[in-house]
Amino acid sequence: MSGLPPIPVASRRDVVADRLREAITSGQLLPGQKLTEVALAEQLGTSRAPVREALRQLEQEGLVVSYPYRGTEVLGVSQEEIEHVLVPIRISLEQYAFRKAAERLDADSVAELESFIAMMAAAAAAGDDSALADADVRFHDAVVSLSGQPHCLQIWRSIQPRVRAYFRRDAGHYADASVVAEQHRRLLAALRAGDEPELEAEVERHIRTHFAEPRGGGG
What we know:
Four Helix Bundle (Hemerythrin (Met), subunit A); 3 strands; Arc Repressor Mutant, subunit A
């Protein structure tokens, strides 16, 4: 198992979960890799209890899986799963959420979304794949939250860790990572325009670009 830096003794489940989540989505921990409470607790410099709780949380997020008599393993995000499960769910959910968000959009919301786009541009310029993926997820999270639809937000939060995992997995493959910010500028422009058919079309184009241009697409 690749080395993970220790964390302060006072840290609890959330810090352990954050550390493991980042290791999984960045590829430091690989699909199929076995995770044991004892080894992780030793590497992270904590007790087994927060590790056990963190693994349960990550299993709920779909990033690890526990098997009887086999322990816990890292789950990968396959291209097949992305294309046939996550993308269709995202299109349906986000088309609805963007429509509802357009009705509630105000100056503060626009400023917040523009700040995430600026983060994407800065991360792309710095070659920071993790920050790029984070800003991308935060943009979509903000729109779904703005929609004011609790069930949309609940579904989004349930798939968000795996969505971030494939954003993070592919962030290093962009031919030109600056396109990610530009794609989100087009999304924001469509959101501000409020034309429902065009907004829905732009959301679908945006999500499907990942497959049309695998080396230049975004999330």
